[in-house]
Design brief:
- By secondary structure, the protein is of the alpha/beta class.
- 33% of the residues lie in helices and 26% in strands.
- It has seven helices and twelve strands.
- It is elongated, with a radius of gyration of 19 Å.
Length: 254
Amino acid sequence: MTRIIMSGACGRMGRVIAGLVNEDKDAEIVAGIDVVEDDTLGFPIFKSIKDCDVEADVIIDFSTPAVLDDILEYAISKQVPAVMCTTGYTSEQLDSIREASKKVAILKSANMSLGINTIINLLKPASNVFCNNGYDVEIVEQHHHTKLDSPSGTALALADAINDATGGRYSYVYDRSDRRMVRPENEIGISAVRAGTIPGTHDVIFAGPDELIEIRHIAYSRSIFGKGAISAAKFLKGRDAGMYDMSDVIAAMQ
């Protein structure tokens, strides 16, 4: 049994994960962290993780970058591994996460979907073929109109996978409205759509002479992210200190 503290318990993803865990015989949410009080979820809610006195095996954080310091301090002091699902961190906060991983197990992913993380793995060999033969790369992501950060962490993760595989040759451009020029070769254009209730769509486009290759991922519901987070929590339980990602979870499934 994996005992979970759910940070962001009363948010959309927190409620999705709570529902999924209720049907999972190998996991249990023993406490929630949220500024909103809700006694209908079936576990105690604390406004701050600093107030949580419930023993657990792992933290899942689907909340806000504002609580990162408290999450990391708790994880280190209690030696409770943390699955970090929140996006929109600053570069300084990312440094803090990397430092914390030297003391406690941390799994960080911009997207918890097994599908997206498998695509990230597939992009590495694909990039070596297309990018080394002059194909342009564009990424288009679509999300619901309440999503705060843009572009999505997933879009950046997809771009980083391509860039890492090709020796870091690319710069990222998010807006071309202020220039009139031929498209530079070594850039990845990343476009963001915010509309309606779209859970998440990501398109990676490789465009060459007379040929177009698209790799698309569509999230039809948020449950795919919840399932991935629960799988990550089970994987991280009892792990030694270090920085992990969803590729480690996928490898353990094979």
